[in-house]
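Chain A, query sequence.
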Amino acid sequence: MNDCTAALPPSGFKDRSTGLMVFGILVIIVGCLLGLMVPFMLLGQLMAGRVPGVEPTPLRLILPAIGMYLGMAVAFIWLGIGSLRCRRWARALLLITSWIWLIGGLAGVVAVACILPQVFSGTMPGTPPGTPPMPAAFRIVFTVVMVGICSVIYVIIPGALVFFYGSRHVKATCEARDPVPRWTDACPLPVLAISLMLGMGAAMMPLMVWTYRVVPCFGTYLSGAPAVALLLVTAVIYAYGARAAYKLNIAGWWIALVGFALWILSATVTFARIGLLPMYELMDFPKAQLDMMRQMGFLNSPWLAALMVLWWLPFLGFVVYTKKFFKK
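Chain A, predicted structure.
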């Protein structure tokens, strides 16, 4: 069996097998914590149904979140085991995952810092009428604490993973311990990242068809049959783009660039024009939850459009960067 004691890295490189084991354990722990979110969500759904006068969120609306946490838990545990065994495919996938986690996390921390002050600027949703707003000092302290926690989860941890798995010593160690070329070696890592992003997008579309069936479309929301048709067509195009990108076909790059750009533009225009609340109404969220959302003014704020652009522009810039790897 090919494991971390099978061979030594080439001369001139430092053996990082111990670090691969340590970070592999860390990744497995992250996967276990993500897996715990699934029973917590189901327990919350069960408890909400037992509270008089509270209508729980329909199960189909939380299924995407459950599927996402379950899928990430399995992926992180699998990748952690691969890191323990010094597999080159694990290093490649963990580096890609960590970069996506870090880029998205940076945007997420900025979003939290912008949104929380707006949420706490007035009376908290769900409080009785006439309740005074939270004291300014409490709002500041709470915002700082939340931004700090989010920074650890979404910036420091993925940043450490990027720093470690991006090391040339770690790469050389994995190549020495696992000398057989893997499927992750068939194309450059940036291109593999584009292929995986398109593949995950294609996999998510059928789930959205089953659960949400609502799509932002340049200033309005499509629902029902038009939304289903658009999601299924997008899934087919993304699936083809994922395969083409993996084969270094320039068509895959164009699908990623145009596809991501259209989704960003469509969502940005829609959020800026009519906000996010109409989407939740079309998803048939319970009335009590919709009333609470209406009290959160930021759901109809132009901030949403700006945050959407902030979130996606780095990924779009990354797609532009990868063009040099593709064949015409």
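Residues 5-9, 123-128 have pLDDT under 50 and may be disordered. Strands lie at 214-217, 220-223.
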